[in-house]
Amino acid sequence: MADYYIGLMSGTSLDSIDAVLVDFSSTMQLVATRSHPLPNTLRRDIHRLMSSGDHEIELMGVVDRQFALCQVEAVKKLLADNAIDSNDITAIGSHGQTIRHRPADQQRSYQHAFSLQIGDPNTIAYETQITTVADFRRRDIAANGQGAPLAPLFHRYILNQQKRTADGVVICNIGGFSNPTILGHNTICGFDSGPGNVLMDSWIERKRQQRYDDAGAWARSGTLHEALLDKLLEHEYFALPLPKSTGRESFNLDWLDQQLETLNVPIADADVQRTLLELTARSIAAAISDHPLTSSALYICGGGAHNSFLLQRLTELLPRHLVATTQELGLDPDWVEGCAFAWLAKQAINRQAVDCQAVTGAMSDNILGGIYYA
């Protein structure tokens, strides 16, 4: 008998809602997927909520519901397209859309840390009539963790269920931000190494009105600007100790504009894009090379898996590593994060605590996510 869960994920790129249907009845099976578009007006309003502004509580209340209703559409179409009845689904795991992530760090105390996602789970549970698990990050923050990344435990689960050795393996999600999971013998470490696609996507949308740089072609056409790269690498985040996580609050176009203004030299748009790609590649490579856990294989998932120039640079920067996508592990790189939240929902429904201590710095194992019954 099938044990169906749905995972919903929307990252910092805001390109779509990823919806996955997963069967956990034996080994995990990815049954069906849907990439559900976000209306441009909703994308615009979410972007507004990612920085302080007028009437933001009013806007958040409205967008919280609008985004949830968009998630509901994604779930209903996923089920209809695959002739699956909602009564057959045990639960939905919804990450929600992060609009503010302020974990504890050297400037912010544990008591003032928070992470805020929208996508009202009450609405999802009511409209789909499927029990919904959401709000995964805040329990971890309550336990003095970073609240993110949460996928590393799922990455280990993938390798364990395939009976593959996890020793020396890195699985790195490159979405808006880059999150390497470094696995050793009975050890695990995960964190945000820095920006992934967020700056590249923002720059090409501003300059070319395109959502992303297809295969890194525009970056490939440019020339690396070493002075700009050095300036970008001076960001204090890169020197922070683990555990750590980041977001648009730290890496955004306003910050990039400030670095360009400080340099005060003309830089071609394509050269900026080339340098932003290098920032992503070098920060990932440095995070892996500098880590005390040695590794020999790097598997990429997320949107960055489609950036062939970025994968080329990672291969060049990590010559002792096999660099491939998670397709080599039997899981399509586009759907790993969605599957992770289906899995986290399963853990919550079954009252299974998740050990994030070595990843987020939480002080204890915790059942992550609030459960909203149908």
UniProtKB/TrEMBL annotation:
Domain of life: Bacteria
Binding-site residues, ATP: 11-18
Reactions catalysed according to its record: 1,6-anhydro-N-acetyl-beta-muramate + ATP + H2O = N-acetyl-D-muramate 6-phosphate + ADP + H(+)
Entry EC number(s): 2.7.1.170
One of the GO BP terms on file: amino sugar metabolic process
InterPro entries in the record: Anhydro_N_Ac-Mur_kinase, ATPase_NBD
Keywords per UniProt: ATP-binding, Carbohydrate metabolism, Kinase, Nucleotide-binding, Transferase
Annotated Pfam families: AnmK
MF GO annotations: ATP binding; kinase activity; phosphotransferase activity, alcohol group as acceptor
Pathway linked to the protein: Amino-sugar metabolism; 1,6-anhydro-N-acetylmuramate degradation; Cell wall biogenesis; peptidoglycan recycling
Function: Catalyzes the specific phosphorylation of 1,6-anhydro-N-acetylmuramic acid (anhMurNAc) with the simultaneous cleavage of the 1,6-anhydro ring, generating MurNAc-6-P. Is required for the utilization of anhMurNAc either imported from the medium or derived from its own cell wall murein, and thus plays a role in cell wall recycling.
Family label: Belongs to the anhydro-N-acetylmuramic acid kinase family.
UniProt-recorded name of the protein: Anhydro-N-acetylmuramic acid kinase
The organism of origin for this protein: Sinobacterium caligoides
Record gene name: anmK
